[in-house]
């Protein structure tokens, strides 16, 4: 992506506010030119002082010229402030639009894809990339306009007074400019990208390391887990040192050239004055020595601009990588499911486009029935359940709810049709009431209280200081896994979706909570089509049908009685399970 196209893309995102951004460049350039005018008055002051010395009383124009210098300096600052106001308004609008655009796109992505990339990473890309454009547009671009205008204005000023000295002051500037070009080429752009990647890697590893501390401590793996984190720091260090070394010589030459203008002037001055010095030449020489440092300031600004432009380029590419992800296709001919039946017809699915995780799976669940998916770990149970609510679309085959292809059901309606109870259901930092209300935003307080009661939450609410209005996560208000799960069940109850997917719903419940969670689940499941992903075989005994999923296929299906009689995989899993239960009981008796 070219820098120019980045800028036009950003301006496109700005909509009508692009005029503000453009105005900011003009104002900043005008301000930079006005800021040169005081130097002209300073020259007049110096000239008058030299001409009238030592009888300064003859210097009548000194106060006037001095005040004019101040006046133009103030005007320059005011115009610059006006420019910054425009640039900030434009930049905020662009960053906001960019965030909205990205968020609107993320909402349209398959849920599974967003989950796979990671909400943290998505948030980081959207926030940091839009923030990078904000700084670029609000400060860096107007500064660049000013930094470009300054040398142009100076050029005029330099040649007006003494063209020979003007040329002398330009020589190092040209040299500096050439060195600068070598530091901002496409190779450096690539390096900047590597720098960003190394930085990203390091921060990801840091987060992983901190997240994993409890597990690491439990298993005494401190050295191993730190090794990964340290590896990313080492890679970053190696990269930064190599990058810095590469820049060392050009940067040194650039700084020397750009800050050594006065050396050129003095050397040139000596050459030009071999035949004698005129007061006017001396005046110009002193004036040039005073004014030329502005060039180095302007050029240094331009140089850092190229670095900033590279950062924005990278930011836009990152946000582009999100915007380019294929959204879930919305149907043009919406259809509505007739009931809560679920059907998979010859469904195959692969996460990476190579290995099929599901291979031609077919099953049919009549409305209101409860089925269980069991099988070895990694067999594809969760993937199968996720396809029902379009976490992803299968590469081949059809998933139907109520006789309708899920791709033909409007997204909102599909969300209302299928509900999940996950292993560790997430609650947000809000009151219990608000947490449950998420299941049905227009629910009345009475409806929420009824759902909480149905989900066996009475004992939780009784012990909380403000009952249902207690905010979870505030000081001293913590709920156990089983308690959180019951609140989450109340939320799903309120949603009242005809199809329910229970993913290991009771795996984390402690024994005291388990009976209540089970009761809450059986209230929740009443009259619904339930697909239960089960590990503990005790929970699947009473279901209408069991599907044994192995290697992405349905290996067996039937009632527990039928499957046990078959003496296949399920019956072996059952025997293992029984042995483990007996072993547990024996241990407890001991
Ligand atoms: N988001 C993902 N991206 C890539 N591969 C995945 C993803 N999720 C699961 N897989 C792979 O797909 C296969 C099936 O996984 P799935 O989670 O569906 O199995 P499962 O039967 O539910 O396993 P478990 O009982 O351990 O939860 C596994 O090989 C797994 O590594």
UniProtKB/TrEMBL annotation:
Q: Which SMART domains match?
A: AAA
List the GO molecular function terms: ABC-type oligopeptide transporter activity; ATP binding; ATP hydrolysis activity
Q: Which InterPro entries match?
A: AAA+_ATPase, ABC1_TM_dom, ABC1_TM_sf, ABC_transporter-like_ATP-bd, ABC_transporter-like_CS, P-loop_NTPase, Type_1_exporter
List the Gene3D superfamilies hit by this protein, alphabetically.
ABC transporter type 1, transmembrane domain (1.20.1560.10), P-loop containing nucleotide triphosphate hydrolases (3.40.50.300)
Domain spans labelled ABC transmembrane type-1: 26-276
| Domain of life the protein comes from | Bacteria
**Recorded topology in the membrane:** Multi-pass membrane protein
Q: Taking every annotated instance into account, which residue ranges of this chain make up the domain ABC transporter?
A: 342-576
Residue ranges annotated as transmembrane are 25-46, 66-91, 167-185, 251-273, 285-304
State the compartments where it is located.
Cell membrane
Q: Which GO terms describe its cellular component?
A: plasma membrane
What is the protein's name according to its record? ABC transporter ATP-binding protein
Q: Which organism is it from?
A: Intestinimonas butyriciproducens
């Amino acid at each position: 992506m070219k820098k120019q196209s980045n800028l036009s893309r950003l301006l496109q995102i700005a909509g009508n506010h692009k005029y503000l951004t453009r105005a900011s460049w003009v104002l900043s350039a005008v301000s930079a030119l006005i800021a040169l005018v005081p130097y002209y008055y300073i020259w007049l002051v110096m000239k008058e002082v030299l001409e009238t010395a030592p009888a300064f009383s003859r210097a009548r124009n000194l106060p006037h010229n001095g005040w004019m210098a101040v006046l133009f300096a103030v005007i320059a600052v005011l115009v610059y402030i006006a420019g910054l106001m425009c640039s900030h308004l434009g930049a905020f609008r662009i960053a906001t639009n960019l965030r909205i655009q990205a968020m609107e796109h993320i909402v349209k992505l398959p849920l599974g894809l967003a989950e796979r990339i990671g909400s943290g990473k998505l948030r980081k890309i959207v926030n940091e990339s839009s923030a990078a454009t904000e700084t670029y547009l609000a400060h860096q671009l107007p500064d660049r306009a000013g930094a470009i205008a300054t040398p142009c204005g100076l050029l005029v000023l330099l040649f007006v007074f003494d063209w020979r000295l003007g040329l002398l002051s330009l020589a190092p500037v040209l040299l500096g400019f050439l060195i600068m070009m070598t530091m901002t080429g496409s190779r450096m752009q690539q390096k900047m990208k590597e720098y960003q990647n190394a930085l990203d890697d390091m921060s990801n590893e840091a987060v992983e390391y901190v997240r994993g501390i409890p597990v690491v401590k439990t298993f005494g793996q401190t050295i191993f887990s730190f090794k990964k984190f340290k590896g990313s720091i080492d890679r970053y260090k190696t990269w930064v040192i190599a990058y810095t070394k590469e820049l060392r010589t050009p940067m040194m030459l650039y700084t020397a050239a750009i800050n050594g203008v006065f050396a050129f002037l003095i050397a040139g001055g000596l050459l030009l004055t071999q035949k004698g010095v005129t007061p006017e030449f001396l005046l110009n020489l002193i004036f040039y020595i005073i004014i030329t440092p502005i060039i180095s300031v302007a050029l240094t600004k331009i140089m850092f601009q190229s670095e900033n432009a590279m950062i924005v380029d990278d930011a836009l590419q990152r946000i582009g990588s999100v915007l380019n992800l294929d959204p879930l296709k919305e149907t043009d001919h919406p259809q509505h499911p007739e009931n809560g039946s679920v059907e998979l017809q010859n469904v195959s699915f692969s996460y990476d486009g190579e290995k099929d995780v599901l291979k031609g799976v077919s099953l049919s669940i009549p409305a209101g029935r409860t089925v269980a998916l069991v099988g070895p770990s990694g067999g594809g149970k969760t993937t199968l359940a996720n396809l029902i609510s379009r976490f992803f679309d299968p590469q081949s085959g059809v998933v139907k709810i109520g006789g309708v292809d899920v791709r033909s059901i409007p997204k909102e309606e599909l969300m209302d049709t299928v509900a999940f109870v996950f292993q560790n259901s997430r609650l947000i930092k809000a009151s219990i009431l608000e947490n449950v209300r998420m299941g049905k935003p227009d629910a009345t307080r009475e409806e929420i209280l009824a759902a909480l009661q149905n989900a066996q939450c009475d004992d939780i609410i009784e012990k909380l200081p403000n009952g249902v209005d207690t905010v979870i996560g505030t000081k001293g208000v913590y709920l156990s896994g089983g308690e959180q799960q019951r609140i989450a069940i109340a939320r799903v109850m309120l949603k009242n979706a005809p199809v329910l997917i229970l993913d290991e719903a009771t795996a984390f419940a402690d024994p005291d909570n388990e009976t209540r969670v089970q009761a809450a689940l059986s209230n929740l499941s009443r009259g619904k089509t339930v697909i239960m992903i089960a590990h503990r075989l005790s929970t699947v005994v009473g279901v209408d049908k069991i599907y044994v999923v192995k290697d992405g296929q349905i290996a067996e299906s039937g009632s527990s009685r039928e499957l046990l009689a078959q003496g296949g995989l399920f019956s072996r899993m059952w025997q293992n399970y029984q042995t483990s239960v007996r072993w547990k009981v024996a241990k407890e008796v001991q």
